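Batch job 17 of 40 flagged for manual review because the log was empty.
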Amino acid sequence: MVAFFLLSAVHFWLIHSLLHWGPLYKYVHRLHHRNVTPGPWSGISMHPVEHILYFSFFLVWWVLPVHPLLILLTGLYKGIEPTVSHSGFQKITIGKKLKIEAGDFFHQLHHGLFKVNYGNNIVPLDALFGNWHDGESDKSLKDE
């Protein structure tokens, strides 16, 4: 199950970075970025090509044999996750102990600055490739 979240995070970062490449951004991903201040519905507001790329994660299960339940959970997670990361909440608390990191602030910065934070907080690929932003540093990005 841990491998699922790691693979999913890497896949999302790769696809999202690709969607910020010139022609794909102009004709496909720009629709999603019309939402400068994201909300839950903007998470799933995507061009059909972007949906195909996003859900292409299922192709991983053709290579790696997994239990059918994990395939169903993949669909559930991939369907709900965009609404969570665009929810307006940094953490979602269930009961007294369970806290789910929504990563909303991280993604809000992406929608505001466009050139940073392509991934999520699970795998630090943005930090590794130099496009991570914390909202405080790098005055040049804050001025954009």
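Reviewer: the log was empty due to a logging misconfiguration, but the result itself is present. The mean pLDDT is 85. Unflagging and moving on to job 18.
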